[in-house]
Amino acid sequence: MNVKPEKNTNCLRKHPNRFTTIAYLMMFVLPIMFQKILSEVLIWYLLVPLFILMFDLWIRKFQFRWSKIWEKARKFSYIRATIYAIVLYFINIGVTYGETFFSGVRLNSKNTISLMNTVGHVPLVFLYILIIAPIIEEFTFRESLFNGLKNKLEDLDYRPFTSRKFVIAISAWVVALTFALVHNDIYLINYEIVSLWLQFICCHEKKISYAIFVHIGSNLISFLILLLA
After folding, report:
1. Fewer Cβ neighbours under 10 Å: the N or C end of the chain?
2. DSSP secondary structure string for all residues of 49-112
3. What is the distance between the alpha carbons of residues 143 and 102, in angstroms, rounded to a whole number?
4. What does the pLDDT look like over 130-160, one tens digit per residue?
5. CA-based R_g, the chain, Å
6. pTM above 0.90, yes or no
7. CA nearest 134: which of 194, 185, 60, 92?
């Protein structure tokens, strides 16, 4: 009896990291291509990211069973995740004050100001800041870019890359720098350290759900503080 070869939707199964990274890049390209059709704000912060997120989740349906989501949710430690989020908040404060102290100038985050102004005009953008962006960024940076780079380094026949800890460290730093540059903000070091902390959580817990929870929590805390201020 002939067994049919498995259908190669498996290009997605073979290269999920590559597809996720391409999808993230498209989030910046598509608004430029279609800005004449709809308003830039609507496309940039809502339609395109939502499409990218749905695509990302569709890719991941090949990697785990959706029927087990409830079971995974019950095993998720909300207390531990909340502690991670609180630690990240204090890391943010410490790094911000450190940069202000050494520069002698109180710096304002261009990225945060821009997003807050946009929320003032289009309140729905809050959904992008709080939920859509953190999930997309964690899939892209903490999982796809990190794992893709780590796998490439591990394949190199070169002595330093035979050390697993070295490979993880260099991959985390490269991803952190990329994460900071993408945000195009004056707080470059802050974004790098945030990325490293989220990467540590992801590697330590071996679940991206913790990093997503912490990222969402951090954005929510920052948003509420700015709102109250």
Report:
1. N
2. HHHHHHHHHHHHTTTS-GGGHHHHHHH--HHHHHHHHHHHHHHHHHHHHHHHHHHSS----HHH
3. 33
4. 889 999 999 999 999 999 899 888 887 776 6
5. 19
6. no
7. 194
